[in-house]
Amino acid sequence: MADILIIGCGGVGSVVAHKCAQAKRDEGTFGTITLASRTPARCQKVAQSVKERLGVDLATSQVDANDVDALCRLMERTKPLLVLNIALPYQDLTIMEACLRCGVHYLDTANYEPPETAHFEYKWQWAYAERFSKAGLCALLGSGFDPGVTNVFAAYVMKHALDEVHVLDIIDCNAGDHGQPFATNFNPEINIREVTAKGRYWERGEWVETDPLAWSMDYVFPEGIGKKKCFLMYHEELESLVKHLPGIRRARFWMTFSQNYLDHLRMLEDVGMTRIDPVSFQGHEIVPVQFLAKLLPDPASLGPLTRGKTCIGNRMQGLYQGKERTVYIYNVCDHEACYAEVGSQAISYTTGVPAMVGAKMLVEGTWKKPGVFNMEQMDPDPFLADLAKYGLPWTCVDC
Ligand code: NDP
User: Is 101 within the bounds of a domain?
Assistant: First the structure.
């Protein structure tokens, strides 16, 4: 059984811990599971919930993942086969570096972003490909839902439903309501940086930029969710998918937002509260978006408050056996059902389950190969079978 180390214990880390414990209990997939962040009390609280719900013991530890030496000391002590990076995108490179030094496989759910610039790109992590390959280690990038399952959905459609894809639309709908005036469903700083950035989509071989949230469309979601307004955004999986889906002509990413969320966000932007550059205040330097994040509800606290469903999926149009075909592949997830199972809302759940399944693919050897990989580069079938088994069933229909 493979020992694993989970770094990060927020909304998503908690779900990852519960799901890894479930796979350990039900299939013996993992051996010792260690959960670490800078705040040991948080890890201990999650370990207690795992023990009560699943009867599985987790080890907990303290680490600052910005510090490669500290990470190495922890890895030398716990000797994991794999590290699951469920901290923030700022820690991706230090954790990858430590994994290389200690001979440990790597997995994350979000690509690297330098703290001082609201800009994410795979180039920094893809640059590690040769070193991981030479070390015989696997780094699996973006094993959440989007990125993550959306990449695997694309690979599934290319394997089973289309010979050639022309148009890809990834559509992320959160039809849930937490009743708070303004809150984000995952880390507030990362969420606000992403949403306030310029939009970007792929059109016939080049990127086209739009103003933030300038384009929208109405989409009718299945399973009773109905019509919602979706806004065009740039999202990281587009970068790897346009590289790995040959012949793709257009690729876009859409996300739903309530008018209430958009009104609050605009006001916060107007008064400078979403700025990411330091501001001098009473002799201290503060970064406004970090101060704002401190004031907003912790995403992990939204679990008991959130009602409704999420629906995330890919609409893909292309050719199959010489004829035009459009398919829609998606998952619908219920916030209250997630809370009842693991004590978290569906955004954390839909990210945490695929992180566990990616780790399972890696430690079982199904997806383990040396190098740095995005999810669409692997065989989608075993991943999607386990995804459904561990709480995220999916549907693929012709449109
Ligand atoms: P939270 O803010 O709730 O949790 C972040 C965790 O990281 C905290 O436990 C924090 O603990 C820990 N952390 C932060 N800095 C460090 C550090 N220097 N060293 C060690 N631990 C650290 O975030 P979420 O759980 O909402 O999100 C986690 C990740 O999941 C993010 O990268 C996010 O972008 C990604 N995500 C991916 C999605 C996908 O579908 N692919 C969707 C949603 C989120 P402490 O302060 O105690 O150190």
Answer: yes
